[in-house]
Amino acid sequence: MTVSMIIGGFGLGICAGAIVLSRIAQRTDGSVLAAALWHALYNMTTCVMMWATILLVTETRRRTHPSGLLVQHAE
After folding, report:
1. What secondary structure letter does DSSP report for 23?
2. Which of 6, 34, 44, 60 could form a disulfide with 28 if both were Cys (CB 3.0 to 4.6 A apart)?
3. Distance (Å, rounded) from C-alpha 46 to C-alpha 1?
4. Where along the chain do its domains lie?
5. What's the pTM value of the predicted model, to 2 decimals?
């Protein structure tokens, strides 16, 4: 992924979130609680996606560049 793809994806996510959040506010007569709950769930989803990405990158690097400990056992 390029930097422009990451920034574009972030921008798209912000715009999509703003649309959904405005609809929630509209449908709940401006309820701050509904907006806060949605925002918390959105942030949690984002954190889970970032965590999964970090785990995948770490695992890929580990398999590509095994540690010295694993190499010693293989010999």
Report:
1. H
2. 34
3. 17
4. 3-74
5. 0.56
